[in-house]
Amino acid sequence: MSAAAASPALRPAPRWGGGGGAPSHRRLVEDHLASLPHGLPRLRNLQELHAQLLKQGLHRDTRTASKLIASYALLRRVPACRRVFSAAASGPHAAAATSNTTLLSNTLLRAYALNALPHAALAAFSAMPPRQRDTFTYSSLIKALSAAGAAAPVRAAHAHVAKLGAAEDTFIGNALIDAYSKTGAAPDARKVFDEMPERDVVSWNTAMAAMVRQGEVAGARKMFDEMPEKDTVSWNTMLDGYAKAGEAEEAFELFQTMPERNVVSWSTVVSAYCKKGDMDMARVIFDKMPTKNLVTWTIMVSACAQKGLVEEAGRLFTQMKEASVELDVAAVVSILAACAESGSLALGKRIHRHVRQRKLGRLTLVCNALMDMFCKCGCVNRADYIFDTEIVEKDSVSWNIIIGGFAMHGDGEKALDLFAQMKQQGFCPDAVTLINILSACTHMGLVEEGRRYFANMETDYGIRPQIEHYGCMVDLLGRGGLIEEAVDMIKSMPWEPNEVIWGSLLSACRLHKNVEYAELAVNELSKLQPSNAGNYAVLSNIYAEAGQWSDMAKARVQMKGTGSQKIAGSSWIELDEALHEFTVGDRKHPESDQISDMVDRLSSHVKHVGCVPAGHELIVQ
């Protein structure tokens, strides 16, 4: 750190210093500081403490104000951070010493960094006199700038500290490694690490985490083995690398050799096995954990819900509540996302009841997750009720979810009506909104309207069509029988068509019995998905419906030549918190005989009323 110390423009970070008040004043401040929690505080308790400090005139004390700002930052209350800073910055204690002002400004910078507000951080930094800036100032600024998602601002900050002679400071170097890796500039991160004259354990951990973030697990392990000293963070970072790569056995092997484990270590191994799909091993490790926290419980409940283990997820959720573990917003969103993915409606409803009781149910993030879950579980009316009555403050995500929900369920008219309301209320449509609108047009067969929305995307909303929008248009035109126009749309795309695009065309060809373009679609799909037998199965059916029996036989031969079988179609329903899956020809269900009898009765009834599916018998799918 000698470079930073030698530079007259950049001072080393100060120790926590007092404001120079009278002893009685200092004791009062210390008492209040002691009452501030070290972890995540409760907003109500923090506001009560803030009110006491205001009443006693202690809110202008620099050290106290800094603690308040840090606590409000953890709760994402940025406006409160600004108010505390403004009051303290104008007080007598802030002017007592430069170190006091630096401490206050640095804390505000860290608050902006924590809340991913790069522009606010840059403005706060610019407002600081150069003589008040220290190593903490620059490291906090660099961290905040990484939230912009681009490496250019980080490189500008790097050049600035290099001019001051502080680029070799270990603390700043660590911040640069982290920032570069988070903005996709892995070579820059590695260069900073390699050129550091002095590295501490944080430097090694940060560089290793950067490699893990890039998916370079082997390189991270090599660095881990080369570390001169390791701490628990080092071990946990390597465990996380294995977990993210799906290498659960390697993670467990490393876990067994750890000299010291904490709840993060245990949770990471549980997560690794959940990701692998080995829920039995995940549960064994989970049950052996000496202590569990909210993250651990969330991992297990979410994984069980995601894998369709609805009863197990429900039991774990009950045990979690019995252990007095309170869900936070992140945990709620994670579990609801898993419910949405697997269709676990019963658990989703329980989470809904729980958040209502805990007064979390009106928060925008939670309501958005609930609406998404209900839409994907087939309960779009419940999602609509939340949108209309429960959510206090809607954002563009809220509108996208509800519009997409109605579009997904075939109610294009409602989706388009909500789109009109969205614009009327001042929300600007984004790329996701337009995907949902084009999908709604597809479900309603509104070809002309879909053409108009697509053609005017850039002029009306400033949105350049992406491959997803082209995919929607291919689907819309194809379903409408405009196969040639759909093919022209594919050829006009500025990207190479993917399997989704060609798959949409193939589905349209099957619907309209178009052999010529079905062959084109399957030919292209064979290049993208050479082992997918399903594409040839669809082509074979199209040939059969066209009476081209020799071509059908060739398609069957090609299907066998892929070396794989077409995955049998399946569907499932949830009943009494249990998922029942049905596959074509599967007799494993304990009540398969009764189910088949019911299907036969339904088939007879459908035929009796004159609504016979063309060319198909009703089957359990």
Architecture overview:
The protein has 621 residues and is an all-alpha fold. The protein has helices at residues 2-6, 23-35, 43-55, 62-74, 78-89, 92-96, 98-114, 118-127, 135-146, 151-163, 170-182, 186-195, 201-213, 217-226, 232-244, 248-256, 263-276, 279-288, 294-306, 310-322, 329-342, 345-357, 364-376, 380-390, 396-408, 412-424, 431-444, 447-455, 457-461, 467-479, 483-492, 499-512, 515-528, 533-545, 549-561, 592-608; strands at residues 570-575, 578-583. A two-stranded antiparallel ribbon has the order 1-2. β1 and β2 (578-583) form a beta hairpin. The relative contact order is 0.03.
What is the topological layout?
Blueprint: H1 2-6, H2 23-35, H3 43-55, H4 62-74, H5 78-89, H6 92-96, H7 98-114, H8 118-127, H9 135-146, H10 151-163, H11 170-182, H12 186-195, H13 201-213, H14 217-226, H15 232-244, H16 248-256, H17 263-276, H18 279-288, H19 294-306, H20 310-322, H21 329-342, H22 345-357, H23 364-376, H24 380-390, H25 396-408, H26 412-424, H27 431-444, H28 447-455, H29 457-461, H30 467-479, H31 483-492, H32 499-512, H33 515-528, H34 533-545, H35 549-561, E1 570-575, E2 578-583, H36 592-608
Antiparallel strand pairs: 1-2
Helix pairs in contact: 4-5, 4-7, 5-7, 7-8, 7-9, 8-9, 9-10, 9-11, 11-12, 11-13, 12-13, 13-14, 13-15, 14-15, 15-16, 15-17, 16-17, 17-18, 17-19, 18-19, 19-20, 19-21, 21-22, 21-23, 22-23, 23-24, 23-25, 24-25, 25-26, 25-27, 26-27, 27-28, 27-30, 28-30, 30-31, 30-32, 31-32, 32-33, 32-34, 33-34, ...
